Amino acid sequence: MKRNSRLSAVLHALMHMAERETPMTSDDLALCLDTNAVVVRRTMAGLRDAGIVQSGRGHGGGWHFARPLAEISLLDIYNALGEPIVFQIGPATEMPGCVVEQSVNRVIGDALKDAEAILMARFAGTTLADLAADFRVAAKLCRADTG
Amino acid sequence: MKRNSRLSAVLHALMHMAERETPMTSDDLALCLDTNAVVVRRTMAGLRDAGIVQSGRGHGGGWHFARPLAEISLLDIYNALGEPIVFQIGPATEMPGCVVEQSVNRVIGDALKDAEAILMARFAGTTLADLAADFRVAAKLCRADTG
DNA sequence: TTTCATGTAACAATAATAGTTACGAAGCGC
DNA sequence: GCGCTTCGTAACTATTATTGTTACATGAAA
Ligand code: FES
Ligand code: FES
């Protein structure tokens, strides 16, 4: 099955934005992400509604951050993308009268809930500033290595 | 997005089988799961290949367990279903030359790996016997409750 | 007022999953 | 052996979710 890499993609876009002073247009970002400008707008719309980024129209318009990178966690972004479902697997549709189904769903549901909590905690503990710092170090090492 | 409830469904089927002495046909199980016999065979084929259940043809044929319920963990079943991917979200396709992508993928990948480990541990620690016991207790309570 | 850029709806393309049909092979009972 | 049952599997269709594309309206700057 195919994984949804929207979170990954949007983080990539945000890192690009973090490296710039001026706003980036949807077309710029679409080029970076190898996709379409409308897709970028669709995705970024969630972040804008969540107050993470802001968009401007007309000349000099585009996307820029609404607050410091250190105050934006991966969890914020994850939530803003509007994908509350983490797991591919999940319990079946509720069958109120069926005890078997309920037992199965409880066992699976509990396990998924635990795993999800771990994941959300990790996301909450990482900010965009952390991520930017991480890749800048890597980039510097890489550059030093190459020559 | 829609969740994949194959694990849930197959557990339901196995609980039905656990309640029976004689093998159950694909048609029987399809009726229980409200689906098609071919779909049941497709799903159960994985379990058969993993040595969890056995199938027999002709009169009196059908599906039955290959070993005691206490020796079958949810992890066994999960693996037998051939769905190694747990999460809907995931890193983007590898871009070897791109440091940003690598950083993003590492952060997300690590978090996912931790969460997945928790989930797998839970699955490994639960057997079909546990599940059967759980629902039998619930069923008894329910029956007592109803009268 | 022209140009640039987002906002959004509508539609097409793509892909994954599930369901269906059809037919062959294996096993049991007579 | 014969016929019935049941799995095994391929091929096809249906459904659904996601993504990509086109088109046009709106707002802002030069
Ligand atoms: S429908 Fe409830 S046990 Fe199968
Ligand atoms: S392509 Fe955007 S940083 Fe690598």
TrEMBL record, chains A, B:
Pfam families: Rrf2
InterPro entries associated with the record: Tscrpt_reg_Rrf2, WH-like_DNA-bd_sf, WH_DNA-bd_sf
Source organism, top-level taxon: Bacteria
Protein name: Rrf2 family transcriptional regulator
Organism name: Shinella lacus
